[in-house]
Amino acid sequence: MRLKLTIAYDGRPFHGWQSQAGGDTVQDHLEKAFGTIDGAKVSVQGSGRTDAGVHALGQVAHVELQRNDLAPAAWCRAVNAHLPPEMRILRAVQCPASFHARFSAKGKTYRYRIWQGPVHHPLEVGRSWQVPISFEVALLREAAGVLCGQHDFRGFSANRGQPDHDTVRTISKIRLKTAGPLVEITFTGDGFLYKMVRLLTGSMIRVAQGRAPLSWLESILQGGTRTSFAAPAEGLYLVRVIY
Length: 243
Fold this sequence. Notes:
The chain is an alpha+beta fold. 22% of the residues lie in helices and 30% in strands.
């Protein structure tokens, strides 16, 4: 039986999504919990990796199980009882064998949360990026307009030891929302390169602070330069995977 899982987690206690030798990643905890109940070694495949400190509201994964005597909702309850409190399966549904959490995905939505001001609210520590130097939200909106659309985002990416060959992506929407000192930037696109959202956010803030012109963003998209201004991991959330 193959299950499609929707998972939420606070990224702070874990060493990212991808399984590691130390065993303290989101994938490791899920595979151990499923294996305990299934009685066999289990592989949980996610829609993509999230780095240490990055949170998820709607990560998606699939798992192939030997047991077929439990309903999906029962699997959800049983596995959650074996997971750390900072991680939960929100929903489990049976899916066809052709479904793959990563390769069936058509796009993703990420949200980046910024706390603007000299004092970081203690309940926001680890959940948002404090930017003590003020910036103009109007300039953020202009920067979003430059970055929307189909572009080669090579200059807004890092690599995991080897460069990406296909770096063209389409960002269909960048939405800004403000609530007092909290600013949220939500990105929706057909795919995102490694650290792309963090590099986009860090570069947008640099422009919004008047430290770089909008033309700098355009030059990066045109391949003239790269950016190294990455926002920290703790403000980033994987909101939704689109199928």
